Amino acid sequence: MDLKTFEAAMGMISDGYYAEAAGYRKKRRKNMILKLCAAACAACLALVSPAAFESGETESEAFSISLDSVSFNSIEGIVSLDYARYDPLEDTELLWDMGSIMDYYGKDAFPSYISEGLVMQNGQAYVYQKPDGGMSEDTVTVRWQLDEKEMSVEMSSLGIVKDCIYLSPESETQTTYIGKTGVLFGRNENGVCTAEFESGGIDYLMVARGLEPLELVKTAASVILKTDEIKIE
After folding, report:
1. Residue 4: exposure state from Cβ atoms within 10 A (0-12, 13-18, ≥19)
2. What is 59-104 written as a DSSP string?
3. Per residue in 78-102, is it b (16+ CB within 10 Å) or e — as a string?
4. If you ran DSSP here, which 8-state letter would residue 216 be given?
5. What φ, ψ does residue 5 adopt, rounded to 5°?
6. What are phi and psi of 6, to 5 degrees?
7. What confidence tens digit (pLDDT) does each residue in 35-93 have?
8. Who has the most CB within 10 Å: 1, 71, 92, 160?
9. What's the whole-model pTM score?
């Protein structure tokens, strides 16, 4: 997916995905990151392996993913925490277009794979800059949609993304490894699937609606592995 395609549109995730949880203050993201770091030694169980395949006279590298190794945890919903970190008196609100977003995050921060037929929506994001030029909030959400099918990717290099509420205790949630990156996949009773992970210094929350779970797995893998050549086995 090239830069021109990304510049076509970008927007905030549908509000319908989020179950507001007043008073909810669990620091799940920090705990999740600590958990994944502590489990780094389990990378030897990585479910992704490279496999060369030939196409015509050229040879390229593909990655195979075994769905048997992917764990979807049951979730109650997604919460929008009161995570505002900007100072309304000191910080400046900026409206980023896709060019500014790409300059900040870089092309590799976006998925290489998106389900066929989905079209990007909108093309802007509001962020907040400190007086010294640093960012106080840098959250961006890209959304692709076709009828009832939707994929959204929320990202922040400051760790400011929404959280999933898992039905199992945190100690019992199952981590799936794509390469050496731990991913918490989730799914609710309505078939909405989620993926939480950190890659390249950026926190991600992906949400898929009306799509097969494997489509979310491939989209997450395309960010982590920086390729759309991914096989599901």
Report:
1. exposed
2. EEEEEEE-GGG--EEEEEEEE--------TTTSEEEEEEHHHHHHH
3. bbebeeeebeeeebeeeebebeebb
4. H
5. -65, -45
6. -65, -35
7. 444 444 444 334 444 433 233 333 345 688 877 889 999 999 898 766 667 888 899 99
8. 160
9. 0.74
